[in-house]
Every structure is written in C-alpha cells, then in structure tokens.
Amino acid sequence: MAFEGNRRKVSSHLSQNESLVFEKSSPGKKAYKMPPLDVPDVDPETLLGEAARGDLGLMPELSEIEIIRHFTRLSTWNYAIDLGMYPLGSCTMKYNPRVNEFVSRLEGIAEAHPYQPESLSQGALAIIHLLKSCLLDITGMDTITLQPAAGAHGEFTGILLTRAYHQSKGNPRRKVIIPDSAHGTNPATAAICGYQVENLRSNSLGMVDVAQLEQIVTDDTAALMLTNPSTIGVFESEIHKIADILHAKGALLYMDGANMNALVGKTRPGDFGVDVMHLNLHKTFSTPHGGGGPGSGPVAAKKILEPFLPTPVVVEGPPDQDGRRMLRLDYDRPQSVGRVRMFYGNFGMFVRALAYIMANGPDGLRQTTEDAVLNANYIRKNLEDVYELPYRTPTLHEVVFSDRRQTQKGVKTGDIAKRLIDYGFHPYTTSFPLIVPGALMIEPTESESKEELDLFIDAMRQIAREAEENPELVLNAPHATRISRLDEVMAARKPVLRYTPAAEKV
Amino acid sequence: MAYPATYRYTKEHEWIEAGGKIGKVGITDYAQNTLGDIVFVDLPKVGSSLEKGKVFGSVESVKAVSDLYSPITGTVTEVNEELATAPEKINTDAHGAWLLKVEIADPKEVDGLLSAADYEKFVKEETH
Amino acid sequence: MRYLPKSPGERIAMLQDIGAGSIDDLFSTIPQEYRLERDLVVPRQMAESEIVEYFRQASANCAIGYASFLGAGAYRHYRPVIIDSLVQRGEFLTSYTPYQAEITQGTLQAIFEFQTMICELTGMDIANASMYEGSTGAAESVTMAVRITDRTGVFVARTVHPEYREVMRTYAQHQGLEAQTLPFGDDGRLDLAVLEQSVTEETACVLVQSPNFFGVIEDIPAIAEIVHRKGALLIVSIAEAVSLGVVRPPVEADIVSLEAQSFGVALSFGGPYCGVIAAKEKYLRQMPGRLVGETVDTEGRRGFVLTLSTREQHIRREKATSNICTNQALVALMATIFLTVYGKQGIRELATHNLAKANYAARQLSSIGGARLLFDGSPRFNEFVLETSESPDQLNAQLLKQKVIGGRPRSRWYPELGHASLWCTTELNTREQIDHVVSLLQHESEEALTRA
C-alpha cells in the first residue's frame, strides 16, 4: 500500500552471517605480542604446584584483523542512537556527546587507581566534588552520594537511607507504598530491603489516588516511592498534598528520578517535598547506554539523611597555609548505612555527566528540558487522532497511547512496535506501564530534530493505516531486518547460554 | 472448549480431579491460552503440604509469571516429572497434563469448588 | 546549544501546531510555587575546548608518570588499543539494552561470546551478562545461595577484600542474614580447621576469594570438600581475573563471582568495572542479571535473545531474583575483546609474565634489611604481603617523592600484621621500576639503622 508522508528511512541493509569467535578460531593464530620478559622466567607448574592450571580450553585464537572485522560486523547489526531515534519511554535515549568519551580517557583520569594517595587524586576528587554540587542544585537537595552503580542500585541505597533514618527514630517501619504504574525495580528494591510492598492505585488522570494514599499511610509506612512525572508522563500536581500526608505520619517521600528529563532547570524535587531520590546519569545526563550499561545512580537527599550516607564521602579538608583546601575521603561516618559497592562509584560516568553539564550550562539545561517536553507534546498532538490516548491529562516529556483501536483488527502494541522497525526506528516501550493495557510509551527526548519527529509520526500513522487495511503486514513484522522474529519460547524452554563445539552448526 | 464434567474448578483457573483420596491438580485450558507458550513450571517437592487458597508454585511463559493457588488442603504425593522437560504439554492438553497428585485432607473441600458448567459461565463473564 | 537540533523558527512552528502560546504553557501542570525562576547554579555553558581544558587540568592533578605497585582489587594491565576503537563505535556505545533482538544481534552475540568465555575460564556451566562489579556480585551470589538452600547461615573468609565484606554486610542486614567471618591461618589462607567446626546444616554458603586479599591462592578443593559435606554452597570470588590464565579454575565451586576489570577495563578511579556471576547449571533459575540464549528465527537462522527474563524485576517485580536492571554491558564488551585479542595462548602468557614479575619483586624486596615476605610458603599470583621494619605509610611517603607508589598498607584492616603492605606487580611493572623501588627501600632501611 502507498506510503503517505515522508518515507526516507533506510529499511534494510546488507550484512554478513558472522560466526562466533570460537568457530573462527584456529590454533596458532595470534593477535597479541608480549614484550620480552625482563625478569627471570618462571614455570607456573613449579611455582604453583596443585594450584596450576591446565590449558584454556576453547578460548579463541584469532588475528587482529579478524577481531576487528568480527566486532565491526557485529556492530552493524545494532540499532543505536547514533543511527536514529529511540522513542523508549522513561529511558531518555538522548545524544551521547563524544567529548565525554574523550575526556574520560585522559591519562590521569583513566589510569587513576582508586587507592592512590589523595594528594595525587585531587583532580578526580575535584570532579566528584563539582558534580555533586551541580546535582544538588539541580535536585534542590542538601546532600548526595555518587556511589550507586545504576538506578536500581540507587533505589536500594535510597531505601536503605530511609530505613536507617527511621531506625534512628526508634521504629524502622515495615511498609513501602508503590504506585501500580511504577517500574519493576521499585517493588523489587523494596523487597530486597525487607519492606512489604503496598500498592497505590492511579486515578483517571494518570496520577496517584491521593484519597487512597491518605487512607493507607500509617505510622508503619516508611516511604512512598513515587516517579514524578509518572510513567504516564503526567506531573503529580497534588505533590504538595502527597508530601504533607506522608510527612504528617513521619513517612518519607522517595522519588524515582528516571523522568528528570522533564524537570531539570524548571523545577526541583527538593522544593516540592521530596526527601530522597535517585538520578540516572545514563538517562538524564547523557552517559551512554552501551548495550545495557554501565550506568550510575546517585542518590540525593535532605539533610536529615546526611549522617547515613554510604562511606566514604568526599569532603573538603582544612585550609593549608595558602588557604587552599585539599579534598579528602572521609571514612569516619559512624551512622553510615555502610558501603553499597567497593571504591567510590562509576567514576567514568561522573566525568561524562559533568562534561555534559558543562557543555550545557544553566541555559542549555533548561532549553534541553523545554525541547524534550515540546517534542513529546508534538508527537502527542500528531498521533492522538489515530492512537487512543487513555489519559487526557497534559503530559510532559513522554506520552502513553494504547493499542485499543488496533486490537479490534487483532493488532497489538508489540506488533506495531515490530513494524516500526521496518521504518527505521527502534520500537517504543511496549506493555508498560501496567496500568495501560496494550501501552505504547513514547519519549523522544530533546535530541530529535523536527525532521526526525515528522518521519516518526509519518511511520506511526502509516502503521495505523496498515493495521486497518492490511493487518498481516503488521502482524508478521519486521520484514526488513537481517533476522526475523526469534523463537523466545525455545530459548526459555531449552536455554543454551554458551557455545559448545559439538552442538554447533552455522 | 469443553471442561471435563468430572473435574472441579477454581476462580484462579485450576482444576482438580478427585477420584478418591488422591486428586490430580492442573490448570485449565483458559489459563494456558491466556499465558501463551509455557516455558517453565515451578512445583513443590513431594511431601510438601498445600493449603487451600495459598500459592504453591508458578507457571511461566516468556513474558509473564502466574502464581498457582491450591484448590484444596493436602499433601503432595507425586509431581509430574514430564513437565520439567516438556512444559508445552500444558498448552497442548491442559486438562490432561496434571501438575501434581495430592492426598486430600478434607474431601468436602472439593464439593465446594465450581462445577464445569459454573466455571464455564465464570470464564464467559471474565472475557466479556 | 549545540546538542539541540532545533532552530528557533521550528520551535515556534511546533508550538503553533500544538496550539500552545509559549513553551511554559506546556509546563502549566507544575504548580506555580515550585517553578524555578532562576538559573541553575552550575558552570556556565562552556565551549568544547574549555571542557577539554578543565579535564586536562583535572587529569594533570592526578598521578601521571608514577610507577605503581598498587593492586588490592583494581589492577593495572595493558589495554590493547583496538578495545577502544571498537567500543567507541556508535553502534556499540549508543545502543540500548537488547530487548528488541532483531535489531541488536551485535550486542547479543557479543554477550553470548562473553558468557562462553567466562564459563571456560572459571570452569562453571553458566554465566550472566554482567553485574555492577565484584563486590555487589559477591553479595548477590550470597543471596542467591540463600535462595537456593533456603538456609540463612553465611560465612565469609577474612581474607576476602574488606570492602567486599562491608558491601556484604550492607546487603545482608535487611534479609535476616548474618555474615560471620572466618579467620586465616599462618599460611595466609582460610583456616580449614575453623571452617570445619563452623559449617553446619544451617549454613547456606561460604564465601572465599582466590587469590585472596593477601595475594594467596586458597586451597579450593579442600574448602569445597568441607563445605559440601554439610550441604552448603561454596562461592569463590575472583578479584584479579588475569590469574585465571595460570591458576586452576575453582571447578569445585557452586558459584563464582568474578570481577573482570583486569580484562581490558581502565582503572578510572574505581569504576565502571565489570562483575559477573557464573554457576553450575542447576542454579540457573536463581541466577540474577540478564542472560543471553541462543535460538533460531522463523527461517531457522541462528540468533540470540535475552532469555529467562521471568527471573528479573520487570516481570517478577517484588519476587525478582534481584532488582538489577542496567548492568555493565559496554564494559563486558571491553573484556570480551581483550580476551579475544590475547586468546588461549596470550592469556596464559600474560598471566605468566605477571607471575614472574611478582616472583622477582617478592624475592628482591624481601632481601632488604628488616623486610620479610609473609605467607611465603603459600602459592601466590601477582600480589604479596611484605612486612617492613618501618611503617608502610612512612615508607610510602618517601617513595612518593621519587614518583613511586608503594604497596597498600594492611594496618587498617589487619592491625595484627603490623607493618605489612600488599604489593602488586603486573606485566606493566618493568624490572627497572622494581629494582628502583628495591634500592629506594634499601636506602630507607639503612637510614633507619643509622638513625637508631
């Protein structure tokens, strides 16, 4: 059927069938060369005795060019931000600036050993110190730890801080309230911290049911874990009331900062009643996703939680004779919840996030947030006549549609998502949040130009038409990828999680 | 879909075939259809006790997990070992692929469960 | 702002299209009292050259050009250049978690290769796609063992990295677990007699590290024998992954928690690194983290997908095996490339070089007056504990003046060891550096004698 609109995205590409490195391996091929040993050689068998190893099994042997080709070919099978838009909701797939990569590889930064003397780490400590102060002003909080390795890790830390706080008041409390629209890490985190999860409904506006909240908050409630804006993209306009209800019973308001891209520079969680929150540097602050990580999940909090921060904390030492203060690591924190990981955090991501903040400045950060919200609303306006909008409430940086109209022809959100691939886009988030059956969760971020947005809108409108007139096309998508839909049932029933020589056939 | 008349059913979509002291427990065809391709079944060990209405295991598809609720109180006497390697049997024959055999503590509990006709009606209302 | 692909004209056109008067109309749901009316207090917008200059200064304010003998959980190894050439490709760097398998086969196949290599190196059947790093990997291995055995007793060897043990405490405290510490013997290894007395039918697991925090390789077969007798699980944590090139893998373990930083990951002041959990096949369903599995597409072509997702938070929510979502994928890719570059022969040769350097350094340093190698009878890899007559802090201060960073003092965690420090030599420590530090310390020792 004819395409209406602008169909300029590449829809297929040439590629190879690339074997596994073990299949390309051949004894005697080498990609390395060690310098000559300048100390007396040793025989591992003699030196280690029973602790010595035999051979290394099927570890591969390849030459350098084969390795370059292997991984280069593999890379061409990946979609990436560098290629085009990822409309994934609450993932904030924004541009990963290259200067970030460059500065993180500068010698003194890249080769800094975490245990090297503090006097020789002032540059690294200064980066931590400056990033902390930027994030504190962005969040409106009083204190912060950069130790957690990712968002979920940050949630864990934040709830630990909450528990420590309550414990110091004599009652650790037993329950954490979580909205039904929340990301899976929220209840998983609460459970790991020994809390019972209590569910909070969302109302017809896509916000939490404040009346229900009032009923269920008791002296046994440790905290409410709230995402604001919610996973529907809606700002909790009764946030003041929510905070008051919690604080009246001595409970804390935890905010999942995954959606900070809608707030930076326009409002601050610390100002609207949040006591503790985590940030995702790999979302809001542009550090690269890298195929699934690494991330970084700093936790910012109000002063009341400061004594409980994980150790160590970067502090300024006393001024020296020239009035300069050295930065040092303070381990003397008797009320600390302890460590949540070794060393100080994903330092490489701090460098990148700080470089991002510097490239933007206050005006850039504000403009970024405004563009993110503008883009999402533009998409909403241009798709709301073809996809059902379950919540009419104004939304910020993301919008959630449902597949209700399309399911009448047997087409579901997952199918629409797969068909979107044929138009050169990565799918949006399907089937989340759980409160919207058949959800299409779309977050464009500020990194998309109007041109790219229009191409996305054209593709989505085309697919809506296809769902009406030619549903098979959508149901059997994608058609243009080098590999078609994979058998996930087989992968789960008979898991094969590693290569073994006998069973393989290319 | 015909639901065997000799079985009894629960609103959590389990069935029990109680032919005396020992009953067979499984999930209904409606349940397997909703779940999709089943990839794994997590069942208790032989000798474990079951309590009516409480979770005793789970059934997994690729994208979802569903808890299994015990229809009656009793003790597990046998577990269907076939399902460990071929969970898809539940998809092809839900009413034949039993999960466990249970020694029923109180046979009167079985009488209180839904009949095939009542269950079918319940399912129709659910899907409406 | 150069990262924002919009012209002012386009913004106006889009606002008109939406029917909004100004951009602030779109923020109207934020109550007026919370709207920020001032600029954020962050550095002003900087040119790229200025950003680079800031970080160059920061880099210069960190140790450059020092000979380092630091290890203790983070290791300086040579990073082949092609690692960065490849991981900086946008298709790897800026790609997302491979939930949409058809368009992320690159990431998925690379992870499958990673999982395979970790299994080969550790002697386990299955490995995941990474955890945050070694210490959280060890903590998650412990909670995994607790889930598997349904017991709550946990023992951790005192020779496990102290920061790992601190993390364990943090993780265990809310799960009703109490991790108890087991002492080491005169040989610097876990005390087997005490272990034997301690493990009971209530024990879920015993966690050891090998090579341990003294650089000593533990007697894994003997430990496993004792642990398994009572039906408990053995978890072996490996902090120096290159050791697997010459040290036999802990095949008797039930779970191996590896820190893969040594495989081509920059030191970067402590992170990001790369944890992995590997285990025996039967523990598959209790394994946290993402798993990549092989399958076929509708045409029967081989492909890879994330699998067994029902263990994870996005499906199980509060009943998940872990709350982990984002992992260390790009760092794991660095490790995969590193291992492919060195390969079967290279990993062994690299490890042998490490062994040789440490062996030489240990001999030379222990020959200094007043210095003694602790635990000398036990097998080691590339780290050793040196006892000196002067305090390590004092000696290190002197060494710093000569641009040498000496071994890590033990006193904070093992005060009973007196003036002891942990020294590490890798393939990057030249003979010159080693001889230099020996002569410096020899000099210090002589000075101390004349002062006395």
Features:
A: 506 residues, alpha/beta, Aspartate Aminotransferase, domain 2, seven-stranded mixed beta sheet, three-stranded antiparallel beta sheet, 16 helices, B: alpha+beta, OB fold (Dihydrolipoamide Acetyltransferase, E2P), six-stranded antiparallel beta sheet, 9 strands
Taken together, the total number of domains of chain C comes to 2
What would the CATH topology of chain B be? Answer: OB fold (Dihydrolipoamide Acetyltransferase, E2P)
Strand order of the largest sheet of chain C: 2-8-7-6-5-3-4
Please trace the helix and strand order of chain C, writing H or E for each element.
HHEHHHEHEHEHEHEEEEEHHEEHEEEH
Q: How large is the radius of gyration of chain C? A: 26 Å
Secondary-structure topology with pairs:
The complex is a heterotrimer of chains A (506), B (128) and C (452).
Chain A: H1 21-24, H2 44-48, H3 64-75, H4 98-104, H5 107-110, H6 122-139, E1 143-145, H7 151-168, E2 175-179, H8 185-192, E3 196-200, H9 210-216, E4 221-227, H10 239-248, E5 252-256, E6 276-278, E7 299-301, E8 313-319, E9 325-330, H11 347-383, E10 399-402, H12 404-407, H13 413-422, E11 429-430, E12 439-442, H14 450-469, H15 471-475, H16 488-493
Parallel strand pairs in A: 2-3, 2-4, 4-5, 5-6
Antiparallel strand pairs in A: 1-7, 6-7, 8-9, 10-12, 11-12
Helix pairs in contact in A: 4-11, 6-11, 7-8, 11-14
Chain B: E1 8-9, E2 14-18, E3 22-27, H1 29-35, E4 38-42, E5 49-50, E6 55-61, E7 65-69, E8 74-79, H2 82-85, H3 89-92, E9 100-104, H4 108-111, H5 116-127
Antiparallel strand pairs in B: 1-2, 2-3, 3-9, 4-6, 5-8, 6-7, 8-9
Chain C: H1 8-18, H2 48-60, E1 67-68, H3 81-87, H4 90-93, H5 105-122, E2 126-127, H6 134-149, E3 153-157, H7 162-172, E4 178-182, H8 192-198, E5 203-209, H9 220-229, E6 233-238, E7 255-259, E8 275-279, E9 292-296, E10 302-306, H10 313-316, H11 329-366, E11 372-373, E12 383-387, H12 392-401, E13 404-405, E14 408-409, E15 420-424, H13 431-451
Parallel strand pairs in C: 1-13, 3-4, 3-5, 5-6, 6-7
Antiparallel strand pairs in C: 2-8, 7-8, 9-10, 11-12, 12-15, 14-15
